Amino acid sequence: MMQQKTMLPQYMRQFACTGTACEDTCCRSWAIFIDKSTYKNYQKVSDSTLKKRLDQNVERVKVNASDQNYAIMKLNDQGACSFLTEEKMCGIQATLGESYLSTTCATYPRNINIVDDTIEVSASMSCPESARLALLNKDPMEFDVIESNNNYKAISSLVRTTASNTIEAHFWEIRIFVISLLQNRNYNLTDRMIILGLFCEKLEESISNEKFELISSLIEEYKVKIANNSFAPLLGQMPQAHHISMQLLSRMVELRSGKGQLNARYKALLDEVIQGFGLEKNDSEYILGRYKEGLELIFAPVLREQEYILENYIVNYVFEKLFLFKKGYSAFQQYIQLVSLLSLIKFHIIGRGLEDGEISPETCVSVIQILSRSLEHNEGYLKQLIGFVEDLKLNPLALMVILIKN
Question: For residue 1, what pLDDT is reported?
Answer without folding.
Answer: 59
